[in-house]
Amino acid sequence: MSTLWTPGGEIPVDDGRKGSGTPPPEDSPGQQEDPLAGLSDEERAQAEELAQQLTDAREQIANTPASVVVGNHAMGLYELGAIHLSQQPPNLGESRLAIDALGALVEGMEGRLGEHEATLNEALHQIRMAFVQVSRAVEQAEQGAVDGEEGDSEGSEV
Question: What is the mean pLDDT of residues 94-110?
Answer without folding.
Answer: 98
